[in-house]
Design a protein that fits this description.
mainly beta, five-stranded antiparallel sheet, 2 helices, 11 strands
Amino acid sequence: MREALVPDLGLALPVPVRRSGHVLHERSSYQALVRTISSPLDSMELRHVSNAAMSLVIAFVVVACTNEGAGPSDVERPSITPAESPTVASPTPPALPDEPPPTRGQVASDCKNGWVTPREDSSRYRLPLGVIRRATAIDGPLVVVDMRYFEGPESPPSDKGYLLVVQRWYVKLYAKRDLAFQGRFLVERRRFGRGLVAVSPYDSAGFKSPDWIGFQFDSSDTDLRPYEGLPGLWSGIPYDFVDGGEGLSIPGLPDEVVGCLNAT
């Protein structure tokens, strides 16, 4: 049974949470209008924590594993390994869609409530950006290419009231002043907290293994490292967020919402 105990910070805690080259082309009229976000969250109360604790770390959803006693040495790790050096920034922005992405998705068996792109002036739009900023310590304007908001159960579904509805955001963005920082992010919010739970390369697509990576907290190794294809630096043990791993035998998203990332 999966239970989240993450505080409202966007920091790594004990449990959850590749690369393709840049594809460049001329910017269309739509691409010139892609929203750049530079203002901090103005609708969220942020706790004061040390910069060391906040720096470039994913916040995780804490999971009660069904595989008791399994530790980092007991489970096969995904193929992703730390890069020898951070990816060099491209001289031009990442590839952008020729047409604006859709802003609403229909209800389906694998997206039970559908999905919607929040209004840019809403707190629901700003919230995931604030979580990403705090978890990765990225500065400067963020260019949001696509965003989807959807709701659904915990993974796996739970009968506990505080886990009946989990708010989730899919966000594809890059940093305007640091073109090496580009990726796709999953942010989750529960009654007791919110955090960044997984990241994938900017030019990956959909919700497929092994693109989406989570990082499990490891108190014996808290060094920050670059990973090929992922923005920023990451601490912890990488695992496959789509299929599970590192002692987690459950997928990162339940069947009821996995389709909300179709065509992303």
